[in-house]
Amino acid sequence: MLSCRFKSYWSDPWNRVDQVMYIMLLVAVILRFTLTNDNDFMWARYVYTVDLVLFYIRILQLYYIHEHLGPKVLVIWRMVCVILLMINVKYVNIYINCRFLYKVKLPPLVPRV
Predict the structure, then answer these.
(1) Which of 35, 77, 95, 113 has its CA 20 to 30 A from that of 11?
(2) Residue 51's CB: how many other CB atoms inside 10 A?
(3) For residue 49, what are the CA distances in angstroms to 7, 15, 22, 25?
(4) What pTM was estimated for this model as a whole?
(5) Phi first, then psi: what are they for 110, rounded to 5°?
(6) Domain-by-domain residue ranges, the chain?
(7) Cα–Cα distance, 11 to 24 (Å, whole number)
(8) Is the pLDDT of residue 105 over 70?
């Protein structure tokens, strides 16, 4: 009986995300209070940041069922995906052009005698 409930609980991916969030929060709090060096403290901040992103994604998932906010969340999500795609294409283009210009500006190779 208990194993059947546990299997049904783990069959939902959002429950898994919730458990990962709680574990990451515990790890971040433990790191926060045990690390004393500023360079090591950055790891606690990284874990807090990833955990906060997961919390925001989980909260946004709740808006899907709302009558007025659900379509807006979908539109914003699609818009963010398109903007990220354009930014990636733009930066790849800039990177390739900068590499090309750098190679063009290099002095010609002189053969060794």
Answers:
(1) 77
(2) 20
(3) 30, 20, 13, 10
(4) 0.56
(5) -105, 125
(6) 13-63, 67-106
(7) 21
(8) yes
Residue closest to 43 by CA, chosen among 55, 53, 30? 30
HSE of 9 in the Cβ direction (CA atoms, 13 Å)?
A: 8
Q: Which long-range contacts (CB under 8 A, 24 or more apart) does 28-31 make?
A: none
Q: Which amino acid is at 39?
A: N
* Tokens 């930066």 belong to residue: 91
**Which ranges in the chain belong to alpha helices (H)?**
2-11, 13-34, 38-63, 69-105
Give per-residue pLDDT as tens, 38-74.
777 888 888 999 999 888 888 877 776 777 777 887 8
Higher-scoring residue by pLDDT: 22, 8: 22
Instruction: Give the residue-averaged pLDDT of 83-108.
Output: 81
